Each structure stands twice: as structure tokens, then as C-alpha cells.
Amino acid sequence: MLKVKLIKSRIAVKPGLVKTLDSLGLRKIRQEKTHEDTPVIRGMIYKVRHLVEVTES
After folding, report:
1. Where would you find the membrane-spanning parts of this chain (predicted)?
2. Does 22 score more than 90 pLDDT?
3. What ranges make up the beta strands (E) of the chain?
4. For 28, which DSSP code?
5. pLDDT value at residue 34
């Protein structure tokens, strides 16, 4: 399982990245969501890696 936390603002981020954050369930700063470790989730995290913090749980 991966714990994903939004650490930077979504303001002034390209619309495609905002949709990726929505798919991950991250809407507010410091909000955390837990996801299974799948290639799809890893790809989404890689796309927004400069906005999130990831820990294994």
C-alpha cells in the first residue's frame, strides 16, 4: 500500500495534472489517501511527483 500526501498547491498547475490529482483523491493540501501499489497508481504518482509525498505503509 502507498500513502500519498498532497504537499503543494494545485493552483497554477496544468489541467491534466489537476485531473490526475482528482483521480488520486487529493483535493486539499496535507490531504492523504492510501492506494494499492499498482502500475497505474505508480504512473499517476510519477506524473505529479513534484506535488506529492509518497510513503509505503
Report:
1. none
2. yes
3. 2-6, 32-35, 52-56
4. S
5. 97
Maximal CA-CA distance, the chain = 30
- Cβ atoms of 2 and 34 within 8 Å: the answer is yes
Long-range CB contacts for residues 38-46, cutoff 8 Å, separation at least 24: 41/2, 44/20, 45/2, 45/4
Amino acid at position 5, single letter:
K
Domains of the chain: 2-56 (3.30.1390.20)
User: What is the spatial distance between Cα 40 and Cα 46, in angstroms, rounded to a whole number?
Assistant: 10
Rg (CA), the chain: 10
CB-CB contact of 41 with 35 (8 Å): yes
**pLDDT exceeding 70 applies to what percent of the chain?**
100
